[in-house]
Amino acid sequence: MSATVRNSKSPLIRTALPGPKAKKVLAEDKIYVSPSYTRAYPLVAKRGRGAIVEDVDGNRFLDFSAGIAVVSTGHCHPKVVRAIQKQASELIHMSGTDFYYPGLSELARKLSEITPGKGTKRVYFGNSGTEAIEAAMKLARIYTGRDKFIAFFNCFHGRTMGSLSLTASRAVQRRGFSPLIPGVTHIPYADCYRCAYNLKPQDCGMYCARIIEERLFRTTVPADEVAAIFVEPIQGEGGYIVPPREFLLELRRICDEYGILLVADEVQSGMGRTGKMWACDHFGLVPDIICIGKGIASGLPLSATVSRAEIMNWPPGAHASTFGGNPVAIAASLETISLLEGKYTAQAARTGDYLMKRLREWPQRHRLVGDIRGKGLMVGIELVKDRQTKQFAIDERNELIQLCFEKGLLILGCGTSTIRLMPPLVIGREEADIALGIIEECLTRIEKEGAATVPQLPTES
Ligand SMILES: Cc1ncc(COP(=O)(O)O)c(C=O)c1O
Q1: Cβ atoms of residues 213 and 159 within 8 Å
Q2: What pLDDT digit, counting tens, does each position of 332-358 carry?
Q3: Is the CB of 264 under 6 A from ligand 1?
Q4: Sheet containing 148-152: which strands, arranged edge to edge?
Q5: Ligand 1 site, residue 273, Cβ cutoff 6 A
């Protein structure tokens, strides 16, 4: 990457998209790669630095997707790269399952210190978000001696059989894969923009949480059979939905009262993304188990399941993974956490506030904008055809994503007709202005010209 490319914060599109080299990759990909992936547009990435990604044809994109909320410290942060290189030259793999190495306990101690709640916590390491959830499910069962779970519609927790049983995001993710694990009950999430019960947050008394006690426990789900409630403290793939604080605290109360574990899935919302290290910190929520992934190692595969030591007290052999907690991923994670604590979490809060301030005016200016929501750099813009009926503007959302791509901005969708902004946490006002400028230009065009029906798979996850 040349110095000018490295220093520039703006996108630059030089070829038709996809360009000639990208077309070759796409052709090979079509033959050999699993068609289950959901690519919204043909970006063929070659290199990245900060919030800029260059494709194989030399086009430059501003990345407001961060590899699905993963490259928290930006692409190839020099300090993270150095930490990876140093570790790779010393020890690449050993397996924490059967051997010891210093990084494993060092990162576990660090996570114990920075996750919500006092006292010593223990950490199980995996390689992906779904593994963090699987570990939490098994831990909750073995600790409580109970087998049932409660989860929320539109939440996404992963795609392996256990986590998929909790995931209730899109039918395509489940179709053809039954039977999943039994004993999972789903209820509506606290989505105040589209309340499932047609109530208003001022006087609903958090019925969406109380229904667990008032309806489920009395009818279909005996409380003393429930091992855990799984919740995303801010819903990710389901639409970037920020629940009221009282909803989460009511879940906490119910769990305490009935001996149920509260599991916070912070795979997407954690690692500084919301302007605090954990989304839970915005609400004063202390879960019993917290699941972490995505941004934890700035792009290397790593996940963690963290709980109080007394809960994570399973016997040797109960759960493990050959690769989980790989030394190179751990080195990247320790450096990532140091960068987040030093600078980038606070920067995400500041840039997020700035983004929000600008976006809050959009519903007045743009007839398609129904709702703006989020915290820090986890921001959702929901498009609707009509603000009264709130009819989903699906084609418009899909077209917006395409048009932004053509102008060099990488964004992804979530929910039914929402776009999500989840840039690397290293961006500042300049990148925020560039991105909002592109989105607004494309949105205005769609509002004037309408949207073609864009057959696009919902991007995940
Ligand atoms: C909240 C949440 N939990 C779990 C997962 C699963 O993570 P992974 O894709 O790394 O398995 C995701 C992925 O998007 C997620 O957003």
Answers
A1: no
A2: 999 999 999 999 999 999 999 999 999
A3: no
A4: 121-126, 303-308, 289-292, 261-265, 226-231, 148-152, 184-187
A5: no
